[in-house]
Design brief:
Elements lengths: L4 E4 L12 E9 L4 E7 L11 E7 L11 E7 L8 E7 L7 H4 L7 E9 L12 E7 L4 H6 L3 H6 L2 E8 L6 H10 L6 H4 L3 E7 L10 H7 L1 H6 L9 E7 L1 H13 L13 E5 L4
Parallel strand pairs: 8-9, 8-11, 9-10, 11-12
Antiparallel strand pairs: 1-2, 2-3, 2-7, 3-6, 4-5, 4-7
Bound molecules: flavin-adenine dinucleotide.
Protein name: ferredoxin--NADP(+) reductase
Keywords: FAD, Flavoprotein, NADP, Nucleotide-binding, Oxidoreductase
Enzyme class: oxidoreductase
């Protein structure tokens, strides 16, 4: 069951009181573990779709000195580079230093955003290809929420395949709504049509497609389901964003298909980023 609630305003007026403050313009709660939110975008902030930034809130005062300092964490920007606002897709860790607080933000509140975007899940880190795979689990969908709305994705590739694996069906909902909205998007709808394939799976709750993406790759079920040939370094490129365990397993599988890991400085056939540490 999805317990989706959204609060939005078009009139939130930023009155910055924090360093690098941005104002929250909308918050959507997807489940008791996941929410997304949008904030104002600093005019000077330029980034490449797929990159991440440090965001946060002021921490609690130090009991000895009474001073507070920013509590910052890495977050993928889930909105594309052309968007007027910035979107983030977040976990709620009940005892997490940041997200125990961040999950309570409301429209008009401020967050801290350090305007220094970085990351490897960018088109520049890949050599040209025919087909691109975005492999994600959990909040690892966030950088692909950006790249799926980026026109360059459809200019550079004939086919775009996005896989998203979560424990439960409700945890797929943010991604599902985003993907389903793409074909009607006034900016990129026409570019997306016929190119995008969405492959959601669950590992715990019953759904139409169950199981880990690593198993579906190893067995070849993914290729059969999608009607595409097995991954090859001549045609296929991949971006991966999940837990460290998933990333390592996928690296091994992709290298087994002959893909090499790329970087901004040395583009190749696949790139990886952690969705979180730990
Ligand atoms: C490059 C990078 C990009 C990131 N992008 C995002 C993002 O777009 N959205 C997001 O929610 N988080 C993202 N994270 C994780 C984020 O930085 C924080 O860890 C998260 O917000 C929790 O912060 P916290 O202070 O509440 O708890 P922390 O002390 O940071 O984490 C507590 C524990 O919670 C678990 N955890 C943390 N983050 C997640 C997560 N996303 N999914 C599942 N379990 C988690 C880990 O086991 C961790 O040890 C990213 C991390 C990195 C390194």
């Amino acid at each position: 069951m999805t317990e989706q609630t959204t609060v939005t305003t078009a009139t939130a007026k930023p009155v910055p009181t924090l360093p690098d403050a941005q104002t929250v313009t909308s918050v959507t709660h997807w489940t008791d573990r996941l929410f997304s939110f949008r904030v104002t975008r600093p005019q000077s902030l330029r980034f490449r779709s797929g990159e991440f930034v440090m965001i946060g809130l002021m921490g609690d005062p130090d009991p000895a000195t009474g001073r507070t300092k920013p509590l910052l964490r890495a977050y993928s920007i889930a909105s594309p580079s052309w968007d007027d606002e910035l979107e983030f897709y977040s976990i709620k860790v009940q005892d997490g230093p940041l997200t125990s607080k961040l999950q309570h933000i409301q429209v008009g509140d401020e967050i801290i955003l350090r305007p220094k975007p970085v990351g490897t899940l960018v088109h520049d880190a890949l050599l040209p290809g025919k087909r691109i795979y975005f492999f994600s689990t959990g909040t690892g969908f966030a950088p692909f929420a950006s790249l799926l709305r980026e026109p360059q994705t459809y200019e550079d590739y004939d086919e775009v395949i996005v896989t998203h694996t979560c424990r439960d069906v409700a945890e797929l909902e943010y991604g599902r709504q985003l993907v389903e909205g793409l074909e009607n998007d006034p900016l990129i709808g026409e570019m997306v049509a016929g190119k995008l394939k969405y492959y959601p799976t669950t590992t715990r709750e019953e759904s139409t497609k169950m199981g880990r993406i690593t198993e579906k790759l190893k067995s070849g079920e993914l290729f059969t389901d999608l009607g595409v040939p097995p991954i090859s370094p001549e045609t296929d490129r991949a971006m991966v964003c999940g837990s460290i365990g998933l990333n390592n397993d996928l690296k091994e599988i992709l290298e087994g298909f002959g893909l090499r890991e790329g970087a901004n400085s040395e583009p190749a056939e696949y790139v990886v980023e952690k969705a979180f540490v730990g």
